[in-house]
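Thread: adenosine-5'-triphosphate complex, take 2
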Amino acid sequence: MEPLRAILGEARSVSTPVLEAVGLHKRFGAVIACHDVSVAFDAGELVGVVGPNGAGKTTFVNVVTGYVAPDSGYIKYRGREHSGLTPRTAVTLGIARSFQHPQLYESLTVLENALIALAVKERRHASWRPLKQARALQGASALLERFELGEAADVEVGQLPEGRRKVLDIAMSFALRPSVLLLDEPTSGVSAAEKFALMDTVTGALAEAQMTVLFIEHDMEVVERYARRVLAFVEGRIIADGRSADVLGDARVRELVLGVAEGA
Ligand SMILES: Nc1ncnc2c1ncn2[C@@H]1O[C@H](COP(=O)(O)OP(=O)(O)OP(=O)(O)O)[C@@H](O)[C@H]1O
Ligand SMILES: [Mg+2]
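Output below.
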């Protein structure tokens, strides 16, 4: 199946992509979760990643961020090849991610979580005490303000509603100051009423930073509203990649991703 490459050829800049996947392939038993995937992203792109359950969206993110080793293929970061990636080396390069289920320190406060994220960035996580220095506190408060979490600073993370937990998890990835940030279902578990506010907060906070952002999303209203470019995964392959209106309007995407029969 030839992938749809609507308009993208024209839209891509001639500069070196910030991130490229080259022939990434990953099999789990009989399932090919990532099927020879090659794709490139420019600085500052905001990309929605769609596809049915089990299509390989999370596996793609896992491979690109070093959480899963590919059977073959590699990534290029700013034009340089990297294989044998680990989560730590990915972060060191400038590639960070958030999780479908936020990975947070539940019994600590929001502010303490932010302090830890900043300490990880500065590699000062070996001891807790220096974290509470004035400069660190200022940085953590600024991070929380940026993501509209300032009022929740002293709340224990275990007590936070899911939407706030998601935002905190994303803020903590942002604290690593990556060039590429991959978000796995930022609005899952968040009420319909809250999802746009959450995405407004997150995209607003990220916009000034010129980060390349990929977000996996099942909610097409969210994809339509926020993504400039959309990748559609089906059975481990990218079946469409282009401007969001073109991809979401494509007949195969409508059938295989959205479950809309032709003519409907
Ligand atoms: N660690 C693993 N071990 C075995 N199989 C796996 C593993 N990770 C993913 N898979 C399989 O790979 C396929 C792709 O899974 P993946 O989680 O990447 O899909 P997804 O598109 O993120 O789906 P969802 O929308 O449900 O999150 C699925 O068949 C899944 O069962
Ligand atoms: Mg997934």
